[in-house]
Design goal:
9 helices; alpha/beta; globular
């Protein structure tokens, strides 16, 4: 592994390590957004500013809601991207799993909830640390890919299963999935991605290149574009097709596709 890759893994791991260090036996809860994004990434985030603010609020409120119903067997991670919430972790019963999804779904601005909580024993500290390390390696690998905007994806790992969240084209999503599957320790890749067309991506890139002065003025075309972006971010995520060559399982409801590792 090169020195550059090692540094990138270290940077990607830093937020996750702080998150693990803050865990308490009394409140076994993780909020996903703070550990997944650095402040410098906001400028290249494909979400609208409103969606980014909503995601932070959803994660904080989700943490509070889960904390209200938490018990000694509940360890739940709440991650929101473009107002879609991913729940991961472990609980002691199916009833707790359903209860967690129910309380989070009632939070303002939540579009949908992807409930990936597992009923079973909680992960050990070593297993959680390994998940953090895997996330770091996946993020570093995405950064190393020259044909991807790594910031387009949020990476969450739970017991070796990597979840990719984001707004991306089909090509970017398939490419990121291939990269994640190639990382050692990854047992499965689950994609929770809002698919946009290549034309929409080109439009976003063009808008990002415009000087701040050009976008600050109030004009009819700019208002129309902003309105379109907001409307698109509020529609349900389209279901994704599994990668054909790897005997992937059919995509369940909610825009989630699992991609087994080779």
């Amino acid at each position: 592994m090169t020195t550059t890759s090692t540094r990138r893994i270290a940077m990607a791991l830093s937020a996750g390590v702080l998150s693990l260090a803050g865990l308490s036996a009394c409140v076994p809860l993780v909020v996903g957004g703070a550990a997944a994004y650095g402040v410098g990434m906001v400028s290249t985030d494909r979400r609208s500013t409103g969606a980014q603010v909503d995601d932070q609020a959803i994660e904080l409120r989700g943490a509070a809601r889960i904390r209200d119903i938490a018990n000694d067997q509940m360890y739940v991670s709440v991650t929101s991207f473009n107002r879609q919430v991913l729940l991961t972790g472990t609980v002691g019963s199916e009833a707790d799993k359903l209860r967690a999804a129910d309380v989070v779904s009632k939070i303002d601005n939540v579009k949908s909830v992807v409930n990936e909580i597992t009923v079973g024993p909680s992960l050990s500290f070593q297993e959680r640390s390994n998940d953090t390390f895997i996330s770091g390696k996946v993020k570093a690998s995405l950064l190393d890919a020259k044909d991807l905007f790594a910031n387009s994806f949020k990476v969450v790992t739970e017991n070796g299963v990597v979840y990719l969240m984001g707004i991306a084209t089909r090509r970017e999503t398939d490419r990121a999935t291939d990269i994640a599957r190639g990382v050692s320790g990854v047992t499965k890749v689950v994609r929770v991605v809002e698919i946009i067309s290549e034309a929409e991506l080109a439009q976003q890139v063009q808008q990002a290149k415009q000087p701040a002065s050009a976008t600050s003025g109030s004009s009819a075309p700019a208002s129309s574009s902003s309105s379109t972006s907001t409307q698109r971010s509020n529609v349900p995520l389209p279901p994704m097709e599994p990668l054909p060559p790897l005997n992937s399982t059919p995509a369940p409801a909610g825009g989630v596709t699992t991609s087994p590792v080779r």
